[in-house]
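User: Predict the full complex structure for these chains.
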Amino acid sequence: MKVLKFGAVWCPGCLVMKPRWVEIEKEHPWLETKYYDYDQDSEKIKEYKIGDKLPVFIFLDKQAQELLRLVGEVSKKELTKIIKESKDK
Amino acid sequence: MFKKISFFLFCFFVLIIPLVGLAQEDNKVNIYFFWAEGCPHCAKEEIFLDKLESKYKEGINLQSFEVSRDSDNARLLVEFGKELHTDVSGVPFLVVGEEHFTGFLSEETTGAAIESYLVSLLEQTGQNNQNSGENTWLENVKIPLLGQVNLKTFSLPVLTVFLGILDGFNPCAMWVLLFLISMLLGMKDRCRMWILGGSFIITSALVYFLFMAAWLNLILFLGLIVWVRILIGLVALGGGALNLREFFKNKEAACKVTGDEKRRRIFDRIKEVVSRRSFILAFGGIILLAVAVNMVELICSAGLPAVYSQVLVLNDLSTLARYGYIAIYIFFFMLDDMLVFVIAMITLHMTGISTKYSRYSSLIGGIIMLIIGILLIFKHQWLMFG
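Assistant: Here is the predicted structure of the two-chain assembly.
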C-alpha cells in the first residue's frame, strides 16, 4: 500500500497534518508515502484530480489503484486504523 | 405643524444665543433635551429632568425632541451641533443655555453637573428661589468604584474581545501570511525576518483599523436613522446564516484553495519582494503588498466590522473610546496571526492552527451574529451597555 499526500505550505490543515504523518511513518516504517506540493507538482494535482480543498490523502493498493481518498484534517487514530486495515491490499 | 415648531425653535435658539445667551424674554432658562426611543440613558435623564422641572418650574423652559423616529428633530440636533461646534452623534444630548451635556451617567454625576450649571444660570437671572440647602447633595458626586462595576459595564469590552477573535479566527484566511513565513524561514537574517513579517502584520492591522474607522464614521454620519440600523441588522442575520452554513457544510475541516491565478500572482510578488537585496525596498514592498492583499480580503469580511461599528455607535462613548475599542477588536482579530508568526520565528518551524477550531468559531460567530441581528432590528436598546 502507498499513500499520496497532497498539501501546500500555506495551508494550515496541511501544517497540522505534517507532524501526525511523521509519527505514523516512524511507527510504520514499511509504509510508503509520497508528498506532492499543490503549487510545485501541478501535473500530479491534475492527474489525481485534486479539487479545491486541502489537504488530500490518497491510499493506493499494490496495483496503484485508488483505495480511499481523505480530504481535510484526519486524526492520527483514524489514519492508523485505515493503514492497519489496508496493509496487505 | 411640528416641523414648523422645530424650525421655529431652532431659529429662536440660534438667534437667542448670541443676544441673550442664557434666558428668554420671560427670564426662563431654555433646556433642549434630545433623546431616542429605547435609549436607557435617555430614560434615566428624562426622569431626572422631570424632577428638575418640578423643582425649578418657575425658572426653566424644558423641551424634548425624539430623534430616532423624527427626522426633523434629528436635523434640529445636527443644527444644534453645528452651532455649538460639537459632536452630536450620541444621545441623550442636552442643551442648557449655552452649555451642552452629552450622555447621562447618573443623577449624582451628570445630573449634578447639569443642576449645578442651571443653578448658576438661575442665579444670574434672579430666578433661583430654591433653598440652597436642597442642593447640598450636588456636592456628593458618587464616582463608581471598581467594586461597583456591574456586568453591563463589562459587556462591551467582552463583546469586543469575543467578536475580534471570532472575526480573526479563520485559519484558511491565513494563507498569505503562511506563504510569507515559509519564504522568510528560508532567509538567514533573523532580524530581517522579524522586521518583514512584523511589518506585514502591523500593516494588515492598520488597514483593518482604517476600514473599521470608515465603517464607524459612515454609521455615525448616517446617525440614528432607524432603517440604517435595521439594514445592518439584516447584514448580521445574513452573516450569521453564512457562518452557520460554513459550520454544517465544511465538516471535513478542509481549506478551500484560493483561485490559481490570484494565488500565483500574490506568491510571485511575495517571492520577488522577500528576495530583494535592499532592505528598504523589501520593507516598502512588504508594506505595499500587505495593503493590497488586505484591501482585497476586506471585501469578503464586511459583515462583522459593520455590525460591530453599529454596536459602538449605539453606545454612549467618546470618540477616543470608540477608536480604543476598535484597537482592542483589531488586537484580538490579529492575535492568531501574531501567534503563528511568533512561533514560526522562534522555532523556525511552521505551525498551523487546526481548521477544526475554525468550524466552531463559525458556529459561535454565526449564533452571535444572529442574536445581534435580531437585537438590532427588534431590541437595539439591549445592545446599549453600561
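Chain B touches chain A through 24 residues (CB under 8 Å).
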